[in-house]
Structure formats: structure tokens, C-alpha cells
Amino acid sequence: MSHEQDNEGFRIQRTDPIDDDVAPGRSVFGDDEISFEDDDAAVPHWSQPPTGSVPKVGAPAESVTFNPQAEPEPAEPGAEEHPGWAAESTGPTWAGEGQVRPPSPPPRSVDMDADAFFAHDDDEPPPPPTAPPPSLSAALGVSGGDRNFFTATVVGIGLAILILAAMAYREWVAVAVVTVVLAVAAVEFFNAVRVAGLQPAVLLGLASVVSMPLAVYWRGESAAGLVLVLSVVFGALWYLLVAPSDSPVRGLGSTMLGILHVGLLGSYAALMLSIPDHGTGLLTAAIIVTVSYDTGALVVGRTMGRSPLSAASPNKTLEGLVGGVVAAIGAAFVMGFLSQPSPLADVSTGGGFTDILILGIAAAIAAPAGDLAESQIKRDLGIKDMGSILPSHGGILDRFDSLLFVLPTTFYVSRFVLP
To answer: How confident is the model over 16-25, as pLDDT tens digits?
Structure first.
């Protein structure tokens, strides 16, 4: 046994003497030499072609023979997958075998239009759009909004003529027309409130609105207070006994708002008709200045409107307001020049040019206030129109919103200026 200590201080113990060199083919650990004597094949030289066989290590290179074979023919399709068909001369016939497919068409451009994207391949192409015929409003140079200017003007003037014709025929006929108009307006209001999620007492509200003009025409303005008191009392009983609600305050409040806004303000038309000799003249003056304001505001607002008037009604403009005010005062000026209608424009009845001009100024203030008040109500309810009975106007209430404020204004102006 020999001992050897390296530089690191480790000692290696061995039984065999240490060889200085390691002979080729011999283990570095001093074991038996590696021998290839039993092998009968040697590894071929790298420059010789491959033989396809694995020779034994240690055999002489001359013992390795190279026997090239012909390249095998490719097997028929499906022979490997279906060995039972390999012996058949014909073999299976595959779909499309031997057929020449036509070349693919060139790719088409992608249409990113939504309608074309979701359309079916067998849908017929839609016809090309045709230009709509020019409307009369476009011919007049009036644009903007979604209402037809000409239709709106004709409908407004037509309603005014209808009421004026009823007044010229009989006062009671005019009262009946006023009552029907207010009833339709009340139906529109309560329906809009219900759509918004509130629960008004519809039957009670309709009964109060219809009875209001009849009561004041029969018993004067003191009858309006009686109708309002009864409406509050029966409204409380309605939500207590007839239709209990989780929110009776909101329900009764919306009911009373409809009665006050439509019934009370509208009943001033019947109240003026109850004035002997001068009732039809007062109502005629109120209708004329209101229609003049609406028409002037519509024309100027559509043609020159640029500055928004209020957030409650974004479509209304300051230019339209100025146009309506000028039109209302101008209509009052014309009535004063003609001394008609009586009594405000007639000197013989205590009126005159100044009196009718005062009415024009007051109406020019009340009309836009009524228009904006209803716009605020509709905006709070989340609706655009109260109804759809009138072409290019919406509902009855949309048409008479300004008049509802002008009616009491005309009544109290006449009380103030007339002897």
C-alpha cells in the first residue's frame, strides 16, 4: 500500500503502484484493459458510404461490406392504414381522387359595414337608397328639430280658428270645446306620470279637471276653490281606502299637479267666457297673442336660433324667445290699431291702445314661462312629448302649454286696466 499526499493535505491510499501514464484502451483506475477482440466488425471509416448495418466495435474495416439496395417503391395510399386492402390490385377509391379542382377565386375585399357583416349570403342586395322628396319646410329654408315647420304652424292656427268659431257661434259651445280639450290634456298628463312610475288617482284627477271649467262658468271664480278643496279631501281618502299605496304623498302630489296645471289654469278660458258681453273678446285676445308668440318663436328659432335658452328645453333659443316676444307685442299693436277685439282694444268699452299693448307685453312674458314650465315637467318625467294626437306637435298639452299661462294673465290684466 502506498500513501500519497497532495498539496491540499488529502491523503490517497492505493494498493497498486501509481502509473505515470495511462495507456490507450486501459482504464484510468487501473482495471482491466478494454478489449475488442471478441468483436467481428469494425467501425467503417468516415469517408466510406453508409451500409445500413451496425458493425461491431473492434472489427477490421475490411470485414464490413456495403450492399446497396434499390430504393423501395412508395406504398399505395391507405395501405398502411388498411393492410387488408394492400393485396388488392385496385384498392379503395378515395373521394376526390383523380379530380382536378378549379383554381380558387382571388380574395375579395372585406366589407366592414355592419349590415353587410351580419347579412346572410343568400340575402338579396338592398335597393340603392333614393333621395327623399324635398319638404315644404326645406323649400321655405326652415330646418332643425324633428318637427315639420309647416304642419306645426297649420295645426296651431287651425285649433285657434276652431275655438274662435265656437265662440262666435255660442258661448256654451265654446265652453264645451274648452272642457273636451282640457279632458284630453289631463289624460295625456296622467298617462305620462304613470309611465314615469308614479301612481296618480287618474279617475279623481279627470273628474276634477272636467268639473273645473264647468263650475267656474256656472258659479264664477269662487267655484275653483271648492273644486280644489274637494280634490284634496277625496284624494287623501282615495289613497287611504280605494287604492292604498306605498307612496301616497307622491301619488297625491302628482294628482294635484295635474289638476292645478291643466284644470285650474285652463278653467280661466271658461271664466272669461262667463263675463257678459266681453268674455269672447278677452279669450280671443289671449288666443291671438299666444299663437303669435308661438309662431314667431318657432320661425325665428328654426331659422336663426343659435344660443340655447334653458337646460330644461335645449331646443329653445334666445333668438326664438326674442322673435316670439316681438311677434306677441306686434299682434297686440295691430289689435290696438284696429280697436279689436273688445274690450281691451276698444276705446268705447274702456280699453284702448295702451291696454292691449300691456296685454301683449304680459303675454310675451307668460307664454315662454308656460312653455318652459312644461318642458321642465317633461324633462323630469323623462319624456319628449305628452302625447301624439297632433301632427308635428305631440299632444294637446304640448300645443296649449303657453296658452295655459296666458289665460290667467289675460283675465287679471283685464281686471287691472279696465274700469
So the answer is: 555 555 555 5
